[in-house]
């Protein structure tokens, strides 16, 4: 609808147009779900996700092990620890948000964070290790 409705006849015409549109859309939906293969393709498209720009698929069946574990454990952990005494709605929102956030957690991101933490701890321990004369030891490269 582009123009506002000004009188009863325009209102009746718009109601008739919307009813016709509803009938067309319901016929299209009935045609899509008239056989089992239509139902299975619809369900599969919900779970298969969409392709990224680089052609990789995203979705629950195309994730690595870390992504799958984070998808399951992140909502449970948050609801059992931080949001223990919260109500149902808060827990549901936390579950939805953590489920979405787990899509960004994969093996690459976890290994990158792990490498940064190891180098940070290594730098701190190198600062405190000194030899007997009081001079810093030079780091040993392996």
Salient structural properties:
mainly alpha, 5 helices, 142 residues
Draw up the topology in text:
Elements: H1 8-32, H2 36-48, H3 65-80, H4 88-101, H5 107-128
Helix pairs in contact: 3-4
The gyration radius over C-alpha positions equals: 28 Å
* Terminal-residue CA separation: 71 Å
Q: How many strands, which pairing sense, and closed or not: the largest β-sheet?
A: none
Backbone shape: elongated
Q: Which parts are unreliable, with pLDDT below 50 for 5 consecutive residues or more? A: none
User: What is the β-strand count?
Assistant: 0
The succession of helices and strands, N to C, reads HHHHH
Helix segment count? Answer: 5
Helicity range = 55-70%
Protein structure class: mainly alpha
What does this entry look like structurally?
This protein is mainly alpha-helical and about 140 residues long. The protein has a domain at about 50-130. It has helices at about 10-30, 35-50, 65-80, 90-100, 105-130. Helix 3 runs antiparallel to helix 4. The longest helix is centred in the N-terminal third of the chain and has 25 residues, at about 10-30. The model has no long low-confidence stretch (mean pLDDT about 80).
Task: Give me a quick take on this structure.
With about 140 residues, this protein is mainly α.
